[in-house]
Amino acid sequence: MVFVGDDWAEDHHDVEVMDAAGRRLARARLPEGVAGMARLHAMIGRAVGDVEDDAVRVRVGIETDRGPWVQALIAAGYEVFGVNPLQAARAREQLGVSGAKSDAGDAHVLADLVRAHCHQLRPVAADSAEAEGVKIVTRMHKTLIWERTRQTQRLRHLLRDYFPAALAAFDDLDAADSLELLAKAPDPAAAARLSISQISAALRRARRHHVPAKAAAIQAALRSEQLGRPVVVTAAHAVAVRALVALLGTLNQQVTVLEGEVQACFGRHPDAEIILSQPGLGPILGARVLAEFGDARERYATPKARKNYAATSPITRSSGKKKTVAARFVHNDRLIDALIHQAFAALTASPGARAYYDKQRARGADHNPALRQLANRLVGILHGCLKTGTHYNENTAWAHQPTLTAA
């Protein structure tokens, strides 16, 4: 048994090989890529000597669970443990209190951590190629949505500084009609000259309803009196607004393209039907849940393990007579976002979910904590369905609810 600590960077890896007694067998800085992986195999080979390959077990600790390097380690037959950087930092403090830090020292900490505490670390379970594909397109889709929100807020702040009438005229700044009209008239003077026909044409191209009334309201808002800014300042703001409008138009286009790719990739995955059978999960949310959980069956041994990773389960802190229960604040943002959205949608899609939510509210929980508890319950149901390969069944999932059993 040998243990490897791998402190990775963008272009190199600091590696230490350690035996079961904690003695350092080798240490080196390896380049990223095929050459570095070949040198790592050679280092491990020299460390184990003449022992038969079948009798050697190699455990690797590294602060990531994805990427071609990690996949190459798994393909080589090594047991790979993805160590949370916070765990590594706490282990470094245990081994030395001076505060000294180096890449080689971090590799030693990781090797010692996987040697002494591998039973408490989560092994990296390789997902299928289909799940990896879903993760790539799904994460980019969500990233572009976040970026669109960020750029929309920047546009809102710009308009508030020199053209507040636009904020009154356009409810959705990132909508197609709003962007088209702002591109034509990014300053108050040009906006006041927009005719009803121009505004109506933009609304029709965006497939809006009640076009005449909305066009009249937009024109009235754009022509309302407002505090002005110097001409030079207004012109500079208009240039900035045109740039953001063009950027938002491109983001809208790419979000739509990626939405189709997400649905296509997710639809080809064998677990798609089971996930889509869950209440509150459609193609987009279902794809996000699959992408962040992965599809390796051995990754989550129990429903509790899946709930802990999802951060929907609470944390209990007990000391003496004091006991507190708190929500988990260290979590996968993408996953918890999808699960909370699922829980909210399940309130109307599942009578059992609604009854469970109402039960939490009756106990005094606010809306968000009650949603989180519902999401925790839904994660457990999803785990059972994936483990047994069965679709969601409303009566089976909520058989413990008195309102359902009575019905």
Q: What is this structure, in a nutshell?
A:
The chain is an alpha/beta fold and 407 residues long.
Question: Any overview of this molecule?
Answer:
The protein is of the alpha/beta class and 407 residues long. It folds into 3 domains: 2-120, Nucleotidyltransferase, domain 5 (2-Layer Sandwich), CATH 3.30.420.40; 133-264; 273-406, no CATH class. Helix content is 60%, strand content 10%. The chain has 19 helices and 7 strands. It has helices spanning 34-48, 68-75, 85-95, 103-117, 129-162, 164-169, 176-184, 188-192, 196-205, 211-222, 231-267, 272-276, 283-293, 303-310, 333-349, 351-362, 367-388, 394-397, 402-406, and strands at 2-8, 12-19, 24-31, 58-62, 79-82, 315-319, 322-326. The strands form 2 sheets. Strands 3-2-1-4-5 form a 5-stranded mixed sheet. The chain has a two-stranded antiparallel sheet with strand order 6-7. Strand 6 (315-319) and strand 7 form a beta hairpin. Helix 5 (129-162) crosses helix 13 and helix 11 crosses helix 13 (283-293). The radius of gyration is 28 Å and the shape is globular. The protein starts with a strand and ends with a helix. The model has no long low-confidence stretch (mean pLDDT 90).
Kindly list the characteristics that best describe this protein.
407 residues, alpha/beta, Nucleotidyltransferase, domain 5, 3 domains, five-stranded mixed β-sheet, two-stranded antiparallel ribbon, 19 helices, 7 strands, 60% helix, globular, Transp_IS110-like_N, IS110 family transposase, Transposase_20, Transpos_IS110
